[in-house]
Design brief:
The complex is a heterotrimer of chains A (about 150), B (about 550) and C (about 100). Chain A has helices at about 30-35, 75-85, 100-105, 120-125, 145-150, and strands at about 15, 25-30, 40-45, 60-65, 90-95, 110-115. Chain A is of the alpha/beta class and about 150 residues long. Chain A has a 6-stranded mixed beta sheet. Chain B has about 550 residues and is α+β, with helices and mostly antiparallel strands. In chain B, the strands form 4 sheets. Chain B has a 5-stranded antiparallel beta sheet with strand order 1-2-5-4-13. In chain B, strands 3-14-15-12-11 form a 5-stranded antiparallel beta sheet. Chain B has a 5-stranded mixed beta sheet with strand order 6-7-8-9-10. The longest helix of chain B has 22 residues, at about 5-25. The two termini of chain C are about 20 Å apart. Chain C has helices spanning about 35-45, 70-75, 95, and strands at about 1-5, 15, 20-25, 50-60, 65. Chain C is an alpha+beta fold and about 100 residues long. The chains are: A alpha/beta (about 150), B alpha+beta (about 550), C alpha+beta (about 100). At the A-B interface, helix 2, helix 3, helix 4 and helix 5 of A face helix 1, helix 2, helix 6 and helix 9 of B.
Chain lengths: ~150, ~550, ~100
């Protein structure tokens, strides 16, 4: 049995998908690849998100850990999963701070479980800060160039 | 030049609101300094030796007169009446209050400017050729591509917490005036054999403690894949760049450790994947942006040669005044339209602070840009200002007004035209002062009359290993170090940031402040004693090597 | 002596711990002995100072002189702009830094 890690549903402070937060204990990428039947996995900054691509259809939850907010590898991990069609819950965990929420959301995170409880008002303001965006990412927002050329 | 539409304006306005909110949370104690620091840095706000310092982005170095006036107003209203133009074509203010910073950003936004991503581990302000759009030798104006990259990289959600800072330069001439190969990504717009425009990508250059010249990783990326290719370069770096050691975190180390071939292979793989992801703006967007960079109507159609009446007017001015002639010969650059030149305003008066300009001088430069240069000026990475499109018959009047304001120094590309970082007088990272060394050198050479004899000689001074003063790329470089609590200066020779990019080598043991001035003089003695006809200092050094210089300095 | 320095959070001005408050004049600095960590933690938490740190200094006939050139420049101002230092009337004040 792989060692269980990960967050519980009541640690999820913000969520942008229907239904209840996925309540599976996550395992490490190594454990998962080592024949685990787990439906939830946790990616650490050094892990290669692409290792999970063959198994996306049996995953209900991917947690991406940010041990420190300054380590931005998790943003690429999230986009890579979404680009490959992963549609399950994608949860940012760890040192997740208010001023990173908007970028994380754009990279495909739809669930947020910070180490520390975030100020609700400040966090909502952060999620809603950017009316438009300059580039496409893993969300559904049209970039400014698409709007300029009638594709938005 | 580029003008914001309602989208661009809304983005900078939202950024001002965001930073106002972040500043409030910092002052209320909701954000610790550790949490706030990367946020303020991404808005160009440092904590320096004496106060906060604000670095304002000047995208590809281009400013309108209205923007230049606004920069002067900020110097007066929020700072101490001056600003410092940097080797990144930006401007920074040294005496900023945190409380004022959101208001300053709002003032900048009112003139379509910002301080976004002028620091932090993100994609920095995009730099370019200071003669872009004007130079006779360029293929196309590189700035539309830089603007496309500016928009793509602004608030890029995936690349805001890179392993380290990331600098991109775009040029479109075989003559490199932007130190392109010394950037994290250097892009040269080129034409292939089929006559199509595309982008050559050089990746993994840089200065700092481990200087490297960027290898070419793709000789031709089609223009409708430019952004996608840049995104692939960045994603490979974000995922695999080193994060265990700050000093090995720049992309140059990744490219070096993987080898250019393996890095390129990974980029090509990511690129192939990203081509299906729809990240590329349509060519119509490039065309829209290009429209803003169209030359003024009168400059668009160069005739066969110079208008005889204008040429005679210039010749007459040149005959009448030797000082004006010297300035014309040194400080102007040929324009694609023969009736015009690009004129360089030197911010290097003898004994002055390289790159500093008072608010008054900025106002004047703004006025001159409006009157003589189609409302446009440029910041050079050599810390001077360019008026890109000046009619030759207006030069005398322009020069007369520059002279009166202390801005007429005729010393472009001479030993007096020194690049110097702020050094220990202002910078908390510095180990030694740079500015006093620059002042003493320019005074020494101006007094001895040797400036003219030496011709082109690029001298660059950094006050620490981070190399903001580009010392690795100087024909003569000076690096300030801390030697047992005393300032000490190492001498380097043989660097270049032009198309013949090379990295300078250190001569040997360092010197104290007076000693380094004497050492520079000795190095120029060796050059004068050995130079062949037509050779610059750099050419002679490359021909005779380091030994004769070492012998003169230490023998 | 050990003195504490940092920057004022709002203005960014260089400040020195006087024993009761923060002053822009280095000569007001007091020896904090082995109390540096306690004072900096308390003052930073109260947001009365930003990025404080302790340095070596000596008191001589001219006042308090930080041991390192960087802190002497912080105490005075940029040596290349005497008009902007704290002692604009003393033209040779730059020598104090070196």
């Amino acid at each position: 049995m792989a060692e269980e890690i990960g967050t519980s549903p009541d640690e999820v402070q913000f969520r942008f998908r229907d239904g209840e937060p996925v309540d599976h204990a996550a395992v490490t990428v190594d454990s998962f690849l080592d024949q685990s039947n787990a439906a939830a996995v946790r990616i650490e900054p050094g892990d290669d998100a692409r290792d999970l691509l063959p198994y996306l259809d049996r995953l209900a939850l991917v947690e991406v850990n940010f041990p420190t907010f300054g380590d931005g590898r998790g943003y690429s991990a999230a986009r890579i999963l979404r680009e490959a069609g992963y549609a399950g819950e994608l949860r940012a965990v760890g040192d997740v701070l208010i001023d990173q929420l908007a970028s994380m959301r754009r990279c495909g995170f739809d669930s947020f479980a910070s180490d520390k409880r975030l100020d609700e008002d400040d966090a909502r303001a952060a999620f809603d800060r950017w009316h438009d965006v300059y580039q496409p990412a893993a969300d559904t927002r049209s970039p400014i160039w698409a709007k300029r050329h009638g594709r938005g | 030049m580029y003008l914001y539409d309602q989208y661009d304006q809304a983005m900078v306005d939202a950024r001002v609101a965001e930073f106002r909110d972040q500043t409030r949370r910092r002052l209320e104690g909701k954000l610790s300094e550790d949490q706030f620091k990367p946020l303020r840095l991404m808005n160009g706000l440092y904590l320096q030796l004496h106060a906060y310092m604000l670095r304002v982005a000047v995208p590809y170095g281009t400013l309108s007169s209205r923007q230049m006036h606004a920069l002067a107003d900020i110097a007066d209203r929020y700072d101490r009446g001056y600003g410092h133009y940097t080797t990144r074509q930006n401007i920074q203010y040294n005496w900023i209050r945190l409380e004022d910073a959101p208001d300053i950003l709002a003032d900048l936004a009112a003139v379509e400017m910002h301080a976004i991503q002028t620091s932090g581990n993100c994609i920095r302000n995009i730099s370019s050729d200071h003669f872009a759009g004007a130079a006779a030798d360029e293929l196309v104006d590189p700035r539309p591509y830089a603007e496309l990259l500016r928009q793509w990289s602004s608030f890029h959600p995936e690349f805001t917490y890179l392993p380290r800072k990331f600098k991109i330069a775009v040029i479109a001439s075989d003559t490199d005036r932007a130190a392109m190969k010394l950037h994290d990504i250097g892009i040269q717009i080129v034409r292939n054999e089929a006559g199509e425009l595309g982008a050559a990508f050089y990746v993994g250059g840089g200065m700092g403690r481990t200087p490297m010249i960027a290898p070419l990783i793709s000789d031709f990326v089609p223009l409708d894949q430019l952004i996608t290719y840049a995104e692939a370069c960045l994603r490979v770096y974000n995922r695999h760049g080193r994060r265990d050691n700050k000093y090995k975190a720049r992309i140059k180390i990744l490219v070096h450790e993987l080898g250019p071939d393996e890095y390129t292979r990974q980029v090509e793989e990511e690129f192939a994947h990203l081509l299906d992801q729809g990240v590329e703006p349509p060519l119509a967007e490039l065309e829209r942006v290009k429209g803003y960079f169209e030359l003024p109507e009168t400059l668009r159609y160069p005739g066969a040669g110079r208008d005889p009446a204008l040429a005679e007017s210039l010749d007459s001015d040149l005959r009448q005044n030797d000082d004006f002639r010297l300035w014309f010969e040194r400080n102007t650059h040929s324009h694609r339209h023969p009736d015009h030149v690009s004129a360089v305003i030197s911010l290097k008066p003898v004994g002055g602070i390289p790159g500093d300009a008072s608010a008054e001088q900025m106002h004047l430069m703004a006025d001159l840009a409006r009157e003589y240069s189609f409302d446009e000026c440029r910041v050079m990475h050599t810390q001077n200002i360019v008026l890109p499109h000046v009619r030759i018959s207006d030069l005398r009047a322009l020069w007369t007004r520059l002279e009166a304001a202390g801005l007429g120094s005729p010393n472009l590309d001479t030993i007096e035209d020194i690049i110097a970082c702020p050094g220990l007088d202002y910078c908390s990272l510095a180990n030694a002062r740079s500015i006093p060394v620059a002042q003493k050198i320019s005074q020494r050479f101006a007094a001895s009359g040797r400036t003219a004899v030496l011709g082109e000689l690029k001298l660059k001074i950094s006050g620490c290993i981070n190399a903001c003063g580009h010392h690795h790329a100087g024909h003569i470089g000076i690096l300030g170090v801390d030697r047992k609590g005393k300032e000490n200066y190492q001498l380097l020779l043989g660097g270049s940031e032009a198309q013949d990019t090379s990295l300078a080598r250190i001569t040997g043991p360092g010197f104290d402040e007076d000693g380094i001035v004497g050492a520079v003089e000795k190095a120029t003695d060796v050059y004068l004693a050995n130079r062949a006809e037509g050779e610059r200092f750099l050419d002679t050094y490359r021909r005779i090597g380091m030994e004769p210089f070492k012998e003169a300095l230490y023998g | 002596m050990i003195v504490l320095t940092g920057n004022d959070l709002k203005s960014g001005a260089v400040v020195w711990w006087t024993g009761a408050d923060w002053s822009v004049h280095v000569d007001d600095a007091v020896d904090v002995g082995d109390e540096a960590d306690i004072i900096t933690a308390r003052e930073e938490a109260a947001r009365r100072v930003n990025a404080p740190y302790a340095i070596e200094a000596a008191r001589d006939e001219r006042g308090v002189r930080p041991a390192h050139i960087k802190d002497r420049i912080r105490a005075l101002g940029p040596t290349v702009r005497p008009d902007l230092t704290l002692k604009p009337a003393e033209p040779d004040i730059g020598n104090w830094v070196i």
